[in-house]
Amino acid sequence: MSKKILHRLMQYSIFTKVIYLLYYSHVINITIINISLKNKLAQTSYKKNNSFTLTPVKVNISANYIETNSCGDAPANKNAIADLEEKCTFIPEYHAPLKIMLLGDSITHGVKGIDDRDSGGYRPELWQKFIADGLPVKFVGSKTNGPENLGDKTHEGHPGWTIKQIAASIDTWLNTTQPDLILLMLGTNDTSRSSLKTMIEDFSNLLDKITACCPKAQLLVASIPPIHPAAKPAIRSLRGMYFNAAIPSIVSSKKAQGKKLHFVDMQSLSIQDLTSSFSLDLDRGLHPNTQGYHKIASLWHDAVLKVLSDRQANLACLRSQR
After folding, report:
1. Cis ω on the peptide bond leading into residue 233 (within 30° of 0)?
2. How far apart are the first and last CA of the chain?
3. Which of 56, 114, 204, 245 could cross-link 282 (Cys pair, CB 3.0–4.6 Å)?
4. Judging by DSSP bridges, how do beta strands 154-157 and 98-104 pair with one another?
């Protein structure tokens, strides 16, 4: 490795801290053989916030620490992925597939509009991203549908369902599948029939049910895509906005109770990302178009990698303190 690259890497103080932590923790004895930068980290600017694309940096390591648990977590092996941009994330390679439940309504099912109800939505691209990462995953649920390029068509997306309807069946689904991660996007259908107060109460109760049934699972909770202002009834768009504004506080309150929740902000989606932009009369302003589903897949993907990285770093810290 050139001195120039080494000098650049050492400028990232958190990267240095993570490497020293892992080296001295007696959790993993690391021998760094080489670090290859796949390409430069690129910054992607959205309208209201900045986010960084995840560019993997492969770190070959040798490890003598092995642990698996009931959630299906597998040990660090010969490869890890680090993402370097003002911070470092550390994601070991997983041997056993991570069981991921994609939970929600027609947006999870993959409806693009009245003429396309079987596109898979964001699921095909999310699957392909995990394959490209070399991260073995298994989608779990009671439903199956999607196009040929979707390697695992299983999901828990129920078109037209409300938060209460999902809550009525969630225990059965979770007990059957025992997922490691749950990706929840739900609430769009409630905007036409429930008050904001009821939506928030129902959503909070659903999160409690999920965490009580699968306390070891990581629950990623997303805001819902925007609803077109011309959608009927007109109050739907406003309810959706206020509901999205409430979700971070709901998630924070659960995290304060020690529950494993993570908020995933979908605010970069706009009405231009809705199928309704082209067929409002048919679609009612509710479902993403191809561009919208692409954004959802990318945001879910980045959120999953961050959760896995943070979790592994926390495990290393806990082990080092023993």
Report:
1. yes
2. 34
3. 114
4. parallel
